[in-house]
């Protein structure tokens, strides 16, 4: 990355944080659009959107910002995300289903990930927060999905439904993501845990999703053979 790119992203983050404090949605949108035009979806998500989300979250928890700022930033980012999903030219041959498991409400990082997959020419179908496992299975079947990604902040989002995750993983390349997935001591069989880094995760899914995830080194088929699970 060039020096001036880094300075632009830092400036963009500063301007967006200022706009969030002022509840100025127009400026949030303008800065994100400019960043998208100048440096694309991956950089905008990883260099501007995620750091701002984290900072707002941290400041909310410390009491410096209020729940209104968290709601405002989530809603503003969702608005711009909608624009990111404008149809891309050419064919989008692969379909991915995104969802948060039951009782998991932290869906924004997954939506951002969806924008990054969309930019990689995936057809992205988002089921959002708190989605019943049966509904996820139905969507996967109905769409003949090439991949499915489930994200959760808490381990319990996955730990409480290991058998149904393994069953779903037998039907479609299944990727688990978010802090709840990366901290699982043993991921469910037939699932792949995505790394924390969204760009690396998108590249990984792009490489293996629909193209034989069974060959992925992070895929936990190992459990079927009583070998230590990786990832
Ligand atoms: C915003 C927020 C919410 C929003 C969610 C908005 C939304 N629609 O997404 C709302 C208000 C709904 C919410 C609710 C709750 N939340 Co909350 N929330 C947060 C907050 C402030 C920010 C989360 C966030 O989006 N961060 C930005 C993301 C991008 O960063 P990240 O989480 O670090 O994720 C990184 C990686 O894990 C990875 N990653 C994450 N998701 C994904 C997905 C994919 C596909 C990939 C590849 C990677 C990836 O990418 C990130 C970059 O490294 C955090 C605290 C914080 N400062 O982070 C708490 C936090 C996550 N919440 C927490 C809790 C406990 C809750 C509640 C249970 C109650 C509460 N105390 O508020 C409820 C209910 C949650 C539920 N049932 O699911 C805890 C979780 C602790 C835990 N591990 O159990 C946190 C950490 C706060 C805390 N310290 O207590 N929350």
Question: Could you please describe the fold and organization of this structure?
Answer:
This protein is an alpha/beta fold and 231 residues long. It has 2 domains: 82 residues, Orthogonal Bundle (Methyltransferase, Methionine Synthase (B12-binding Domains), Chain A, domain 1), CATH 1.10.1240; 132 residues, 3-Layer(aba) Sandwich (Rossmann fold), CATH 3.40.50. It is 55% helix and 11% strand. It has 9 helices and 5 strands. It is globular, with a radius of gyration of 18 Å. The chain starts with a helix and ends in a 23-residue tail after the last helix. The site of cobalamin has 29 residues, from helix 2, helix 3, helix 4, strand 3 and helix 9.
Observed structural traits:
alpha/beta; Methyltransferase, Methionine Synthase (B12-binding Domains), Chain A, domain 1; Rossmann fold; 5-stranded parallel β-sheet; disordered C terminus
Beta-strand residue fraction: 5-15%
By CATH, the superfamily of the largest domain comes out as Cobalamin-binding domain
Report the bound ligands by name, code or SMILES. cobalamin
Number of individual domains: 2
What is the overall silhouette? globular
The secondary-structure class comes to: alpha/beta
Q: Uncertain spans, ≥5 residues at pLDDT below 50?
A: 3-7, 211-218, 221-231
Strand order of the largest sheet: 2-1-3-4-5
- The total count of helices amounts to 9
For the secondary structure, the number of strands is: 5
Q: Terminal Cα separation, in Å?
A: 28 Å
What is the CATH architecture descriptor of the largest domain? 3-Layer(aba) Sandwich
Succession of helices and strands: HHHEHEHEHHEHEH
Report mean pLDDT, rounded to a whole number: 86
Radius of gyration (CA) equals 18 Å
Q: Percent of residues in helical segments?
A: 40-55%
Quick one: biggest sheet? 5 strands, parallel
- Please name the CATH topology of the largest domain: Rossmann fold
The first-level CATH class of the largest domain is given as: Alpha Beta
């Amino acid at each position: 990355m060039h020096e001036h790119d880094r300075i632009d992203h830092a400036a963009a983050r500063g301007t967006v944080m200022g706009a969030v404090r002022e509840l100025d949605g127009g400026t949030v949108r303008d800065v994100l659009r400019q960043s998208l035009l100048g440096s694309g979806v991956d950089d905008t998500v990883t260099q501007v959107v995620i750091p701002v989300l984290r900072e707002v979250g941290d400041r909310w928890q410390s009491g410096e910002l209020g729940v209104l700022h968290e709601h405002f930033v989530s809603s503003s980012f969702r608005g711009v995300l909608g624009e990111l999903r404008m149809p891309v030219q050419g064919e989008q041959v692969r379909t991915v289903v995104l969802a948060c498991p039951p009782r998991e409400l932290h869906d924004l990082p997954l939506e951002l990930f969806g924008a990054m997959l969309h930019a990689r020419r995936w057809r992205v179908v988002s089921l959002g927060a708190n989605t019943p496992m049966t509904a996820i299975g139905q969507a996967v079947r109905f769409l003949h999905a090439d991949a499915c990604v489930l994200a959760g902040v808490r381990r319990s989002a996955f730990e409480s439904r290991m058998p149904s995750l393994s069953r779903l993983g037998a039907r479609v390349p299944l990727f688990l993501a978010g802090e709840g997935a990366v901290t699982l001591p043993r991921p469910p069989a037939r699932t792949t845990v995505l790394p924390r880094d969204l760009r690396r995760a998108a590249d990984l899914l792009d490489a293996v999703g629909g193209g034989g995830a069974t060959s992925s080194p992070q895929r936990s088929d190992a459990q079927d053979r009583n070998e230590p699970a990786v990832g």
